Amino acid sequence: MEQRDQYFMGHxxxxxxxxxxxxxxxxxxxxxxxxEIGVAPGARVVEFGCGPQGxxxxxSDRVGESGTVVGIEMSxxxxxxxxxxxxxxxxxxxxxHQGDAKATGLPRGTFDLAxxxxxxxxxxxxxxxxxxxxxLVKPGGAVALHEADWGMNLCDPxxxxxxxxxxxxxxxxxxxxxxxxxxxxxxxxxxAAGLDDVRVRPLIxxxxxGHSRRRIFVQFARNLRDRILAQGLMRDSEFVEALAELExxxxxxxxxxxWPYFQAWARKPQ
Length: 270
Known about the structure:
alpha/beta; eight-stranded mixed sheet; 23% strand; disordered N terminus
């Protein structure tokens, strides 16, 4: 029997394109995180759930020719896209492996940094993934996370369509054992994995008219349509009507759109 895809957003081609665009949109915040941690030339780094691009180029630049970066990704298509990206940009110090991020098979205690961006909010059993990250880093090494929290995003004026999709996404998450409020919980996950010196940085994104991420809720809805309908969380007619209303609301330049994220990082005790 075919194994059910547990990744919240799925691995469609549309989702891979969204992730490629996202790599550029979030690059500045990720770069600031890596610089704060102090990713040095010669470091050995692993990125969990790197997707078709992720932070691979940012990490490659920081570790330099004497360092190495390993990307772990479950989607075959995403792995192929990531390898093509690396080849096109002549990035030779990065390799991408297809596999389970909760059981990578990589050597324990050999990495200076393990990182993941917007992965825990998409998978069940996030504790297992953080435990694997902690196991891979050496004493003094860092684990860094960048996560979303579905309980804090908002639009104003309020929109019934926004609320309908918000409720459907949260119900879908819970039905598939995914925590949509993981952002606020990542400091606790780092501590539970045996890490200390936990640092936290909240990030508030304001998506004004013309911003490339202003319609991200619409992208999520389209990518998840088949899954939402299959699980009976919305009727097809309800979905179509709500999506049209959501698009109209977001097209209004006076609508306020806010999305929150959290970065948290910690060290493995010496």
